[in-house]
Amino acid sequence: MSEEATNRKILVVDDAPENTRLLSRILTGSGYEVHTAERGEDALRLAQEIKPDLVLLDINMPEMDGYEVCVQLKSGEQTRDIPVIFISALDDTEDKVKAFRAGGVDYIPKPFQMEEVLARVETHLALQRLQRNLQSANRELEARLIDLSQSQEQLRDRESKLRAFVAALPNLSFIYDQDGRYLEVMANETSLLCARPEDLLGRRIRDVLPADVGKTLEDAIHRAIETGKVQVIEYKIPTMTGEQHWFEGRVAVMEKNDDGNSKVIFTATQISQRVALFEEVQRLAMQDPLTDCFNRRHFFELAEQEFQRAVRYRHSLSLIMLDVDHFKKFNDTYGHQTGDKVLCDLVDTCRGSLRSIDLLGRYGGEEFALLLPETHLEGALKTAGRLRQELMKIRVSGQEAAPSVTVSLGVACYEPKSNEVATLDELVRLADESLYDAKSAGRNCVKSRQKATS
User: CB of 188 within 8 A of CB of 268?
Assistant: First the structure.
């Protein structure tokens, strides 16, 4: 039982009792609190009552299908942020696209693998937790700004009491004149300063900090004096320890005099942890948790951009669909951990054989997609053939008797001079059909329904 699962509620929605029982047993065994519903209306009512952390949702159900259930969940104020993972026997690209458009965050085809369901549930719950932490950090920072503004309004002896207040704040506080000269430096953590406090006094920001950061800070000071409003900026600077740190700075006017002798107070809060958290959220949203290549959603976001670029500039664009042969049998024989290692080795091998401009994504299970910009069909076929040979060299550690890893590959190409492919969906369909041909031909081969032209 993982700590992640403790007290986490999952709503399973499927009109087939055998599916709800199986999923309930899997998830309950991993420590989750599971609730079930067999109808869409019951699912919506339960979601309002129990506020689940995640919903596993079937598509084909009587009266109200899974698409409509998801749309209604996403339109409700109390349920819109609940991640929805579709689980369905429908495996066409159109069905999956419709699921994502309805608001789903993932799609697991039936029949599903226990390990895959648990891995995807854990990934989306971790992503949800990181997003909530980021929102909490933002609310805390906003609350601190409100507290500071309210305190400033209540001060009678504004300057003396304000100095006492900022001295108690974490990290760094400065008082500048209107030209950006350091008048006072208050630092609870001097290691976060770019120089010793006594070496800063009387100097201008532009003479101390990197040119771009110095200009940003001085511009914020001028805007604060001109508008009378608090200015908020984010910047990254090297400290005395040599480390780079991110800060959030807030500039507020202390004194504004007609003779131009104005003063501002500048508070700087280190936000390196928040920036790292945001970057981690972005990484989880883009990468497959097992192989670290692009996940399906992000791969097709980038693929759509590449397709539009190919149309605009009249460049060729090729797509390779790759499927590991007999992977279920391999998992059953050597175990899922060994199977996972094979998928990771496959991704590493593909990366070593592709160009920096090529895209690699996990399409689902043991199937991967490779997008090759500015590549004709002939070049894509050669790349696919080379990959097939390279992937056969993968060896399973500790399993000397294991057979070579073989793959089937389907290749399709968009050519600006041809009317054969007009959209990314058509390119995907053609590559899928070519992959089907490769499997039908005995696997461990490369097929395309198009003809290469010299």
Answer: no
Number of Cβ within a 10 Å radius of residue 53:
20
Which residue, 412, 396, 413, is CA-closest to 404?
Answer: 396
Tell me the residue length of the chain.
454
Looking at the structure, tell me whether residues 105 and 179 fall in a common domain: no
Contact 358, 372 (CB under 8 A): yes
Q: Which class for 75: exposed (0-12), middle (13-18), buried (19 or more C-beta within 10 A)? A: exposed
Average pLDDT, the chain: 84
- Which CATH number characterizes residue 408's domain? 3.30.70.270
How far is CA 365 from each of CA 24, 159, 290, 296, 409, rounded to the nearest angstrom? 22, 64, 11, 11, 15
How many CB atoms are closer than 10 A to CB 353?
14
- 159 and 234 in a single domain? The answer is yes
Question: CA-to-CA distance for 106 and 295, rounded, in angstroms?
Answer: 10
Q: Identify the pLDDT of residue 110.
A: 84
Residue whose C-alpha is closest to residue 163's, from 153, 174, 171: 174
Whole domain around residue 16: which residue ranges? 3-112
CA distances from 168 to 142, 148, 149, 163, 214 (A): 18, 12, 15, 9, 25
pTM score, whole prediction: 0.48
In DSSP terms, 57 is beta-bridged to 13, 86
Domain count, the chain: 3
Residue 333 has a pLDDT of 84
Query: Which residue is listed with tokens 């942890």?
Result: 273
Q: How confident is the model at residue 438 (pLDDT cuts 50, 70, 90)?
A: very high
Asked whether 269 and 326 are in contact (CB, 8 A), the reply is: no
Residues whose CB falls within 8 Å of the CB of residue 134, separated by 6 or more in sequence, listed in order:
274, 277, 278, 281
> Rounded to an integer, what is the distance from CA 108 to the centroid of its chain?
18
Question: Token digits for 167?
Answer: 């001295």
- Tell me the helices (H) and strands (E) count for the chain, helix number first: 15, 15
User: Of the residues 61, 87, 112, which one is the last residue of a structural domain?
Assistant: 112
Asked whether residue 300 falls in the same domain as residue 266, the answer is: no
Is 73:44 a contact under the CB 8 Å cutoff?
yes
- Which one of 256, 276, 296 terminates a domain? 276
